[in-house]
Amino acid sequence: MNKEFNHIKLNEKKWDKWSESLDGKGWRNEFLRKAQEGVVSLLEIKNDIHFLDVGCGTGWAIGKAAERFNFSGKFFGVDLSTKMIERAKENFQSMENFYFIKANAESIPLEDGFFDVIISTNSFHHYLNPGKALNEFYRLLKAGGKIYILDPTADSWLIKFLDKIIKMFEPEHVKMYSSKEFKDMFINAGFKYLKSVEVQTRQKIHIAGK
Ligand SMILES: C[S@@+](CC[C@H](N)C(=O)[O-])C[C@H]1O[C@@H](n2cnc3c(N)ncnc32)[C@H](O)[C@@H]1O
Prior knowledge:
By secondary structure, the chain is an alpha/beta fold. It has a single domain, classed as Rossmann fold. Helices cover about 40% and strands about 25% of the residues. The protein is built from seven helices and seven strands, in the order ααβαβαββαβααββ. The chain has helices at about 5-20, 25-40, 60-70, 80-90, 130-140, 155-170, 180-190; strands at about 50-55, 75-80, 100, 115-120, 140-150, 190-200, 205-210. It has a seven-stranded mixed beta sheet, sandwiched between helices. The longest helix is centred in the first third of the chain and has 16 residues, at about 5-20. It is globular, with a radius of gyration of 16 Å. The mean pLDDT is about 95. The site of S-adenosylmethionine has 19 residues, from helix 1 and helix 2.
């Protein structure tokens, strides 16, 4: 089994299982929701938005973003886990302008230059080839579009330590990056790095434009 295939299978297995509890209560889900709210609150209001959430889970942030944009536009979610996508479709089955697709962030079967905004929350550190994912986000974004990636950011000893520990126990975990690494990766993919905004316990939203 090659490394890439193995990595995808491990992730699918883990997140398929998580899909059973991601819509439930508890501190973990509250933590994730607060982080997603932080991202959604920064989005600039616009009519007829083309919005994409990569690693969308069961679609919670997509519902919140759609509320912020008054449901005007097209709202897409992509996730590697079949079960996350099934649940997201169930959660939003009445919404005609919501679309959920099972795909790897590194290869998303959608049109070039279609999206005004791409977000990704607590998902990026699971991508085996982060540069490939960023190239894909760049391809999908319109000129003038913005990307918001929220992830635990390894600027402090705590997150660096956590990153090492998690890697020992979770083989599908790849890496938590520092702000400098995010900035370099964004620039390599062609983005203009705009800024980072800290939300709860050393998670940062890294914002870049095309
Ligand atoms: C911790 S959950 C976060 C879900 C949601 N974004 C949130 O903030 O609650 C990580 C999500 O990333 C997805 N994921 C992991 N690797 C991925 C990849 N390579 N491509 C797309 N989605 C991926 C998982 O399936 C899972 O739904």
